[in-house]
Design a protein that fits this description.
Elements: H1 2-24, H2 30-69, H3 77-94, E1 122-127, E2 137-142, H4 154-158, H5 164-180, H6 184-189, H7 191-219, H8 226-236, H9 242-251, H10 255-285, H11 291-325, H12 332-352, H13 357-375, H14 378-409, H15 417-443, H16 452-460, H17 466-473, H18 479-510, H19 538-541, H20 549-555, H21 559-576, H22 583-586, H23 592-597, H24 601-604, H25 624-638
Antiparallel strand pairs: 1-2
Protein name: Sodium/hydrogen exchanger
Signal peptide: 1-25
Subcellular location: Cell membrane; Recycling endosome membrane
């Protein structure tokens, strides 16, 4: 019996092997085993690299937790995330244990079946191995771009991600979270200044940086074209003061300063992306300067921005309608899932239409916060706020860690000392021309004025970050683009570490007060704030604040914004949300049938003593809207 028991498993194994060979029609070859081993090795290296970035994020989270209890004066967690990435990248590049990438030179002798100017997307390679060359098999290889001169280590190669991952996966939640967590009361109070810095300031910075770089490189007889320099000026003008804003929030600086820095950075990113796209289209239309191509690029910029804005706004309003006129709030999981999918589809829709998904998803987030948020159940409000804060936190820290790692693992770097030196000087000049002249112009008609210490802080807050890096790494096909990537990465690293570490000290030097006693300052912190529900808690719980009517009235000189605000309160919010007043209260009697159709039972049963106060828009006195609503409410009861 012992012999039978020992031979049984061996007999089954031999039988299984024989059956498998019979089914396949031929025995397994060494090539099959090597291919299987290659797949397993690739999977192992992929898992190792993902684990590496996961540990970097864990280390960053632990660092932030430590800094909550004991903050270092000249260090910030975002700068440390970059430093951690630099250390890991250096270890990967210079460690002794290498996993070389095998390669074979293919030089076709037969007439080619592909006749395009650009390289093909895939290469079908007939390969039989060294054992039996007569049994050829066809393998597909994808296009990766031009081969760098250095031989790649497979682990180092896998540590470098496809640039499209940044635009399609990492940037959308960052930009959407900026719009969704936007505290609109102070944003809209400073709307004129924010738009001036974001649109006019970014354009000025683009041409100042591009012009200075091109002028100096022309003296050095460089091969950089004017379009390359202008493109660099556009992408490097995208500011990302994430470290400065975090310190502002912790120290409770003046809300107007926070709103100016945050608002400029939010819109500035969108403008820089569209400007980069317009400049690239200008470069493809003209090799030099042509008036027609220049104006075509301007029209292209306006078209892309306006249509992306329209798509984002429409999708945000459509989500509000779906959540208002359905009972999705009875199923919070489905409600949250629809909210996330509608928001992400906005980005994909704009990209598929050859527009800018970043702009679309930004304004979608603003509309979702302004309208859809009011219709969500309490569970979905907490879920959506927390989810996008989490995605924003992980994405931003991943990108900053990756910037550090890629300095050593990305093979498409081009170190041009002259270009790097000129670029640092140019961005300082561009930031200067963006902040000070525009601030003085704004102060001619602005109340309150932007003080000189605020101007200095705005100048200092021009850090570069995720958007600039993502734009630079997206295309490294030419020598100039490689130099742009290297220079952009260095600028991001230096500004994040240096400016982020000196923010607290600069606030002290400039005499900017901290711990400002303002009932609304704490609402501006976008990181993991509790959400209040109920009347007056809309948009993060911002409600009317006593004593603000006089200061708010100063902003009502912006007549265009006041007209839009009244239109929004009277028609948009009653139509898109379940808040009071209803359309029955705000529309003429002749529109009563349509107004009743667009009014939900939930709206009619809202507590009329707590009507919607649109404090997030910074309207004048809190009494203006309730007075109108109370009169309209009596009319609605008569109907």
């Amino acid at each position: 019996m012992a012999g039978v028991g020992g031979e049984g498993p061996l007999f089954l194994a031999l039988s299984s092997s024989f059956l498998l060979q019979s089914v396949n029609g031929k025995p397994s070859t060494g090539t099959d085993l090597e291919i299987d081993e290659k797949y397993q090795n690739t999977h192992r290296i992929d898992s190792l690299n993902i684990l590496l970035y996961t540990f970097l994020l864990i280390l960053t989270v632990v660092t932030i937790w430590i800094f909550k209890y004991r903050r270092a004066r000249y260090l910030h967690e975002t700068g440390l995330a970059v430093i951690y990435g630099l250390i890991v990248g250096a270890i990967l590049r210079y460690s002794g244990d290498n996993t070389p990438v095998s390669h074979m030179v293919v030089d076709p002798k037969e007439p080619q079946t592909y006749h395009g100017d650009a390289p093909p997307d895939t290469l079908w390679l007939k390969y039989g191995g060294n054992i039996n060359a007569s049994q050829n098999r066809t393998y597909a290889y994808s296009f990766r771009g031009e081969i760098p001169e250095s031989l790649e280590d497979e682990i180092v190669q896998k540590a470098t991600f496809d640039p499209e991952i940044f635009f399609n996966i990492l940037l959308p939640p960052i930009i959407f979270s900026a719009g969704y967590s936007l505290k609109r009361r102070h944003f809209f109070k400073n709307l004129g200044a924010i738009f001036t810095f974001a649109f006019l300031g970014t354009t000025i910075s683009t041409f100042v940086v591009g012009g200075l770089v091109y002028g100096f490189l022309w003296l050095l007889s460089s091969s950089f074209s004017f379009i390359d320099c202008l493109l660099f000026g556009a992408l490097i003008s995208a500011t990302d003061p994430v470290t400065v804003l975090a310190i502002f929030s912790d120290l409770h600086v003046d809300v107007n300063l926070y709103a100016l820095v945050f608002g400029e950075s939010v819109l500035n990113d969108a403008v820089a992306i569209v400007l980069s796209s317009a400049i690239e289209s200008y470069g493809s239309a003209s090799g030099g300067f042509e008036t027609s191509a220049f104006f075509l690029a301007i029209l292209n910029f306006l078209w892309i921005f306006s249509m992306s804005f329209l798509i984002g706004s429409v999708m945000g309003c459509l989500t509000a309608i779906l959540t208002k006129f359905t009972r999705l709030k009875d199923f919070p999981l489905l409600e949250t899932a629809l909210f996330v999918l509608m928001s992400y589809s906005t980005f994909l829709m704009a990209e598929a239409a050859d527009l800018t998904g970043i702009v679309a998803v930004l304004f979608c987030g603003i509309c979702q916060a302004h309208y859809t948020y009011n219709n969500l159940s309490a569970e979905s409000r907490v879920a959506t706020k927390t989810l996008f804060e989490l995605l924003n936190f992980l994405s931003e820290n991943f990108i900053f860690s990756y910037i550090g790692v890629s300095m050593f693992t990305f093979d498409h770097h081009k170190w041009d000392v002259g270009f790097i030196s000129i670029a640092f000087v140019a961005i300082i000049a561009g930031r200067f021309m963006c902040v000070y002249p525009l601030s003085f112009l704004l102060n001619l008609g602005r109340t309150p004025k932007i003080p000189i210490n605020f101007m200095n802080m705005l100048f200092f807050s021009g850090l570069r970050g995720a958007i600039a890096f993502a734009l630079a790494i997206r295309n490294t096909s030419s020598t100039a683009r490689k130099a742009i990537l290297t220079t952009t990465s260095l600028i991001v690293i230096v500004t994040v570490i240096l400016c982020g570490g000196l923010t607290t000290q600069v606030l002290s030097w400039l005499g900017i007060p901290v711990d400002v006693e303002d009932d609304e300052t704490h609402h501006l912190n976008t990181s993991f704030q509790p959400i209040r529900n109920g009347p007056g808690a809309e948009d993060g719980g911002e409600g009317p604040v006593e004593g603000t009517s006089s200061s708010s009235s100063k902003y009502e000189k912006a007549w265009l914004f006041r007209i839009w605000s009244q239109f929004d309160v009277r028609f948009m919010k009653p139509f898109l949300t379940n808040s009071r007043p209803t359309l029955l209260d705000t529309t003429p009697l002749c529109c009563a049938p349509l107004a009743r159709l667009l009014t939900t039972t939930e709206q009619l049963t809202q507590n009329i003593t707590n009507p919607l106060y649109d404090g997030d828009l910074g309207l004048g006195s809190s009494s203006s809207v309730p007075t109108r609503v109370s009169v309209a409410g009596s009319r609605g009861q008569d109907l």
